[in-house]
Design goal:
The chain is mainly alpha-helical. The chain has 6 helices and 2 strands. The protein has a two-stranded antiparallel ribbon with strand order 1-2.
């Protein structure tokens, strides 16, 4: 197995958070995945997901206006939109 294939296998075995941390630690990661490297994990209804902030979404729409046209419901998640029931 080549060194490249071994590295790919290792990356596939990583969790999303581990891969993101690896990308953030490498200059190439920032070049290849700039939006992902800037995104932050948020907890929505008890599930941790990767989200963009409002300012990041505005920047993304400015560069790629078709996204807002094709996905008008898309929005940033700053806080958990699903209220928790406190019993």
């Amino acid at each position: 197995m080549s060194e490249y294939d071994a590295m790919r296998q290792e990356a596939r075995a990583m969790s999303c958070r581990e891969r993101l941390e690896l990308d953030r630690s490498l200059e190439m990661g920032w070049k290849l995945f700039p939006w992902e490297c800037r995104a932050q994990f948020r907890i929505v209804s008890g599930v941790e997901i990767l989200c963009l902030t409002s300012s990041q979404m505005e920047s993304l729409f400015a560069k790629h206006s078709y996204l807002q046209e094709h996905y008008p419901q898309i929005e940033a998640i700053e806080d958990d939109p699903i209220p928790q029931l406190l019993w």
